[in-house]
Amino acid sequence: MQHFTAHLHDEEGTAALGAALARALAPGLSVHLHGDLGAGKTALTRALLHAAGHTGTVKSPTYTLSEPYSIQLDGRAVSVIHFDLYRMASAEEFLDAGFREDFNGDNICIVEWPEKAEGVLPPPDLNLFLNVAGHGRDVELQASTALGNSCLQRLKFAPNM
């Protein structure tokens, strides 16, 4: 399976990675974002969505738990659903909300705080880890499926030096 690591020197590096990921998206992709509060998970998702063509506001779904966005991929309308599970008290809330149905071959699902729904959240195609390192971030991407592998193969990103 594909694996990628880099050091992002600043917020612009995080935005550049989000834009690069936008160019590597595919319908059905599920990405789990890992990192402490303030690590840049929402900033990366915001940059990804804007680079993928969303022109409106991208808000953190901290209180709503999910926010859907519509983008075009190869001339096809695709929903990107951004989940933030930080405020969930139990994994059962994920099931009660009906979120599992969003994980299908059509939607792209980006999940912050996936550990909050451990055991009921569908497995990711791609795990992305962001860790604060000085003024920047260390990032690691790990593919865990063929779809995640193909996403990383399409990823064209040179970290800011």
Automatic annotation (TrEMBL):
It holds the Pfam family TsaE. GO terms for biological process: tRNA threonylcarbamoyladenosine modification. Keywords: ATP-binding, Cytoplasm, Magnesium, Metal-binding, Nucleotide-binding, Transferase, tRNA processing. One of its GO terms (molecular function) is metal ion binding. The keyword Metal-binding applies. GO terms for cellular component: cytoplasm. It is found in: Cytoplasm. NCBIfam families: T6A_YjeE. Belongs to the TsaE family. This is tRNA threonylcarbamoyladenosine biosynthesis protein TsaE.
